[in-house]
User: Which sequence fits this backbone?
């Protein structure tokens, strides 16, 4: 046997072995991707500023002032100006980020657990279980997501909690579909059969061989849904179904400032810019993640 | 007679943002009209890339072709898009391993061939369809008229391959490039297609470049073989001579390790190790690390091409050179 | 039937040793007996997804494998050879048929459970790339089986490294690598190591060398023979490559459209094939000699679709000796459990009524 070893191992054509591990490789690649790093930093800044809003905000976001309505940025210490009721825009944007980001992220998180879990089960078991789960999802798919979110939260009576429940329900079907597709693909690869052929119990095969290979696509898709979630949540608030005034929320602020677009266009655009920056950075980060997690490229 | 194909010092680099890999490294050969040449080699040896370079089918942004390619007197590397289009399908055409890739799955095969004929010849569709029928007869497809009406997926593997050959022959090419066209076929079908290609080549007098990894296939179809290893042609010669008395140690290794009725109680001859990583080729002869007869000098530089007998060229320091090589 | 003409039972080939505590039936008990295996895949169609037809992938296949021997299975695409492999590992449930492993019936009451079968029989797949988990270092893939059966991680990893050494890979260099960092031949060595991790008695090799380059293929074939000798293994070797099958097999079984058409000792079958299909298959091999090229294809056309296989003898549509009888009545193979050289062809049966039937 030793001769065989020598023959094969000595002229090893590969460079020195990289003992970096899967997540190590992903991290290495992310660190060397300036675009993703930049947007990641921006995203982190947005999240941190929302979390620390009470300490960062220069003014009380609820304090109105008739004389200071719709002032331009820089007026009397209002760095980003004031809104239609004379409240400080910067403070409201910072506080608004808390609600908006929560409404964007919590539903996606819940939907990833529920929808992703259902999808993996459907994909792995196949057959009747798959048909049952996926047909139910198809029913939800028949409605446009915006319409569905509006209908559900409208039927439940609006409010932050109901809005989040509505968004969760909206996100379950697409996540389930992505998880199911990814699992079915992996499920049909020989290495899963090979693992089954060792006689190992199904839960071990699922845990060690299937989950690791579907987690990537699911997480990437979920992270791209967060930006959709923020936009949908803003949309709900815009329609008066999500956050109720005077709570600060980007969507709600955008709605309220709509009429002021001719008076103070810069201020009116600000909530929109916040939404745009958040979703763009989320998309860029999830794109970078997708590239970094593809080990084979 | 003028050679139909002349390739001189062809090199192909694949370029990405991070790296540059030389897949074909100084390949030279020429072919007379009516000659069948097999490019033999293992995966990654550069045989398919060489063939694709002849037709400039490599992605232009990610590959760089160097050297000189002349087909039917024209400089292929200098051609503009129009000249290139006229060459593809007019002078040169190609058949692939997987015929499904050559056909549009939702259009009847007869219509596809008719369209190609109509476009290239400037004739009517009806005339094109008539020509398609002739071609189906030419490639011996039984009940050709009915098969022209079929969609690609309705044909069996062997018939699909024949239909693709018909498509490739539709404009009477002078040179047919065949990229492992029988590899995916069953044994009983492969021999049918090989015999068909051989007789078509004789009837139409075209040249064929046939890429394969299978020595047996080369023995069935080739006039000449070029053995490729790590991006270089290491040996060329007539198929008879190369198979009977190989000059390059890689060729003899390949012949020895091909399983063909060897005695069962003895281990097979093998070439130790694995083909080199194209990103980090050994400095001298690429085969030296696996070569049982390697000398010290083998690592110093790529061995030059020597021609020990007319029509035979090998790149190996062990091969004596009584004659000047015909081409380097 | 040529039963009467069967030669004496040859002794089991040498490498088999009788010191395995798991050996229950003794040297004369075949390690594997398969009787009447059937697997039909439904084809769904129409609006309601009803079953409109069946692919008769495996249709009544019977054979046995003696301890320590290598049974080669050859055939073209669609002949059911790969389905047989998956049925043997119970990665698919057979629709009918019986599988007896060392005297114990598999999957039946009081017999061998599927999990127990999989401890004694393992499989190597054709596609060396897709049969390894891309997110797992290769030594993890090798150690997975033993760990699933409760071996502590450190011990399983040590075993994995030992097995990698055995298949010719330096564990320090290759153990921590991911599959995409290995070449095709190296991946297939890992797959072989993984199959050996549970110390199986039988290994099913489904086109295990077909995707490899010729020079690497020969290395892996030599390795398989060495391992077989050292570990007293029994192989079922499935391939479309007649040359490879001949070199590695003691006995060979030829399949066509889900049925066994011929089975027998390798040399007998290759030197004196009895079934016209086997003859055609052998004559279809490239000649390896430019001066004696094949001038005429032994058979024409493609193998028919296994969805609606031809009636009677399934080869009659391509057979040069076909007679009306062949389309109406299916020839039978007879009982091959003695290890005889048999063919399912009317010409082999003096009483069949075929004009070329031979008296034997």
Assistant:
């Amino acid at each position: 046997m030793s001769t065989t070893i020598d023959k094969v191992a000595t002229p090893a054509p590969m460079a020195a072995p990289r003992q970096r591990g899967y997540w190590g490789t992903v991290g290495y690649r992310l660190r060397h991707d300036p675009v993703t790093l930049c947007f990641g930093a921006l995203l982190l800044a947005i999240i941190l500023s929302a979390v620390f809003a009470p300490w960062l905000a220069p003014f009380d976001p609820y304090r109105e002032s008739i004389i200071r309505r719709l002032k331009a940025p820089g007026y009397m210490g209002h760095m980003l100006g004031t809104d239609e009721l004379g409240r400080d825009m910067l403070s409201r944007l910072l506080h608004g980020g808390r609600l908006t980001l929560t409404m964007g992220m919590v539903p996606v998180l819940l939907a990833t657990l529920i929808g992703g879990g259902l999808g993996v089960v459907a994909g792995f078991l196949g057959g009747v279980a798959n048909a049952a789960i996926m047909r139910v999802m198809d029913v939800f798919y028949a409605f446009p997501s915006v319409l569905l979110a509006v209908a559900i939260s409208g039927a439940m009576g609006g409010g932050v909690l109901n809005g989040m429940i509505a968004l969760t329900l909206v996100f379950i079907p697409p996540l389930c579909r992505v998880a199911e597709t990814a699992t079915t693909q992996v499920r049909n690869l020989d290495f899963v059969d090979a693992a089954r052929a060792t006689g190992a119990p199904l839960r071990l095969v699922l845990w060690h061989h299937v989950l690791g290979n579907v987690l990537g696509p699911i997480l990437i898709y979920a992270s791209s849904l967060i930006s959709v979630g923020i936009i949908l949540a803003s949309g709900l608030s815009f329609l008066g179904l999500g956050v109720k005034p005077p709570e600060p929320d980007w969507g709600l602020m955008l709605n309220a400032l709509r009429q002021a677009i001719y008076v103070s266009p810069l201020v009116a655009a600000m909530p929109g810019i916040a939404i745009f920056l958040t979703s763009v950075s989320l998309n860029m980060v999830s794109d970078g993640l997708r590239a970094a997690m593809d080990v084979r490229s | 007679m003028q050679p139909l194909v002349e390739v001189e010092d062809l090199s192909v680099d694949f370029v990405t943002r991070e790296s540059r890999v030389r897949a074909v490294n100084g390949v030279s050969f020429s072919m007379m009209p009516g000659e069948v040449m097999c490019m033999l080699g293992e995966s990654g040896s550069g045989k398919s890339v060489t063939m694709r370079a002849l037709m400039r089918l490599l992605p232009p942004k990610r590959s760089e072709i160097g050297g000189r390619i002349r087909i039917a007197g024209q400089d292929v590397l200098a051609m503009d898009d129009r000249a290139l289009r006229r060459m593809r399908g007019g002078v040169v055409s190609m058949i692939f391993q997987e015929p499904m890739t050559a056909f549009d799955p939702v259009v009847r095969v007869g219509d596809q061939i008719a369209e190609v004929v109509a476009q290239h010849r400037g004739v009517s569709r009806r005339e094109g369809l008539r020509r398609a029928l002739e071609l189906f007869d030419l490639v011996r497809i039984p009940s050709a008229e009915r098969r022209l009406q079929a969609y690609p997926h309705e044909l069996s593997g062997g018939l699909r391959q024949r239909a693709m050959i018909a498509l490739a022959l539709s404009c009477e090419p002078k040179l047919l490039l065949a990229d492992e066209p029988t590899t995916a076929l069953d044994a009983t079908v492969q021999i049918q297609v090989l015999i068909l290609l051989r007789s078509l080549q004789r009837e139409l007098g075209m040249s064929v470049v046939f890429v394969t990894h299978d020595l047996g296939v080369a023995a069935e179809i080739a006039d000449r073989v070029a053995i490729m290893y790590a991006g270089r042609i290491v040996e060329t010669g007539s198929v008879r001579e190369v198979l009977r008395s190989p000059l390059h140690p890689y060729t003899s290794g390949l012949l020895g390790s091909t399983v063909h009725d060897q005695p069962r109680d003895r281990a097979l001859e093998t070439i130790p190790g694995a083909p080199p990583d194209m990103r980090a080729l050994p400095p001298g002869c690429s085969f030296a690390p696996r070569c049982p007869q390697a000398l010290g000098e083998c690592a110093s530089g790529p061995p030059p091409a020597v021609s020990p007998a007319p029509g035979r060229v090998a790149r190996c320091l062990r091969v004596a050179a009584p004659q000047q090589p015909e081409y380097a | 039937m040529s039963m009467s003409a069967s030669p004496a039972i040859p002794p089991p080939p040498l490498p088999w040793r009788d010191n395995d505590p798991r050996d229950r039936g003794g040297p004369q008990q075949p390690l594997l007996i398969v009787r009447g295996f059937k697997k039909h895949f439904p084809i769904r169609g129409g609006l309601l997804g009803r079953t409109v037809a069946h692919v008769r992938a495996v249709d009544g296949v019977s054979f046995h494998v003696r301890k320590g021997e290598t049974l080669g299975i050859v055939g073209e695409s669609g002949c059911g050879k790969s389905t047989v492999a998956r049925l043997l590992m119970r990665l698919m449930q057979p629709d009918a048929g019986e599988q007896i492993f060392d005297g114990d019936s598999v999957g039946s009451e009081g017999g061998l459970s599927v999990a127990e079968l999989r401890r004694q029989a393992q499989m190597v797949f054709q596609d060396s790339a897709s049969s390894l988990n891309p997110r797992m270092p290769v030594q993890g893939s090798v150690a997975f089986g033993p760990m699933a059966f409760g071996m502590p991680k450190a011990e399983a990893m040590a075993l994995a490294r030992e097995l990698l050494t055995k298949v010719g890979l330096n564990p320090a260099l290759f153990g921590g690598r991911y599959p995409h960092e290995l070449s095709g031949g190296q991946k297939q060595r890992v797959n072989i190591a993984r199959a050996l991790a549970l110390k199986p008695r039988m290994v099913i090799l489904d086109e295990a060398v077909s995707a490899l380059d010729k020079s690497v293929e020969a290395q892996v074939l030599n390795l398989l023979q060495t391992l077989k000798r050292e570990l007293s293994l029994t192989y079922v070797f499935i391939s479309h490559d007649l040359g490879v099958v001949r070199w590695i097999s003691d006995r060979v079984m030829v399949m066509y459209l889900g049925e066994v058409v011929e089975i027998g000792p390798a040399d007998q079958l290759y030197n004196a094939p009895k079934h016209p299909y086997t003859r055609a298959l052998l004559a279809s091999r490239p000649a390896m000699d430019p001066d004696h090229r094949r001038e005429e294809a032994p058979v024409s056309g493609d193998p028919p679709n296994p969805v609606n296989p031809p009636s009677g003898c399934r080869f009659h549509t391509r057979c040069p000796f076909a007679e009306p009888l062949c389309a109406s009545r299916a020839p039978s193979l007879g009982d091959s459990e003695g290890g005889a050289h048999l063919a399912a062809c009317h010409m082999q049966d003096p009483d069949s009524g075929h004009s070329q039937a031979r008296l034997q």
Remarks:
- Confidence is low (pLDDT under 50) at residues 1-16 of chain C.
- The domain at 29-135+178-348 of chain C is CATH 3.40.50.300 (Rossmann fold).
- The first helix of chain C runs from residue 81 to 88.
